[in-house]
Write a structure and sequence with these properties.
alpha+beta, three-stranded antiparallel sheet, about 15% strand
Length: about 130
């Protein structure tokens, strides 16, 4: 259960970093006050009815395009030289101790690994109705 929470938490943090650094643009096309088309990462299609603003029509009666740009975060790259000496010492010691956790142990000898268990002919607990509680 702990590994499931760890993996899902790691996945969510990776998605958070991905979406916080991603930039995108939303393009919208309006005819009057109605939204005709909306597109992400591309141009919105127009309705094909361009109304001139001259002749007494206002901007609200004609077609217009609207672009919304969302800029991502750019300052995520941190170099090792920006850290103080105590932070560098902590990082080096943590890395060394973490790598030492994964040392392989020598294989252990198990004398009965080649033998199979005996076949169960009769289940004595059920036969005599004696169960440990």
């Amino acid at each position: 259960m702990k590994k499931v929470f760890q993996k899902s938490g790691s996945f969510l943090m990776a998605l958070l970093v991905l979406f916080s650094t991603m930039s995108f643009t939303v393009d919208k096309h309006f005819c009057g006050s109605y939204l005709v088309d909306q597109a992400v990462f591309s141009e919105a299609e127009d309705c094909g009815m361009e109304h001139p603003v001259e002749g007494g029509m206002t901007e609200e009666d004609g077609c217009r395009d609207q672009k919304v740009s969302v800029e991502g975060q750019k300052d995520l790259k941190i170099s090792f030289h920006d850290l103080d000496l105590p932070q560098q010492v902590f990082l080096a010691s943590f890395t060394y101790s973490y790598v030492e956790l994964f040392i392989e142990l020598p294989p252990q000898f198990i004398p009965f690994s080649d033998y199979s268990p005996p076949l169960l002919v009769i289940d004595f607990q059920v036969l005599h109705e004696t169960f440990l509680i």
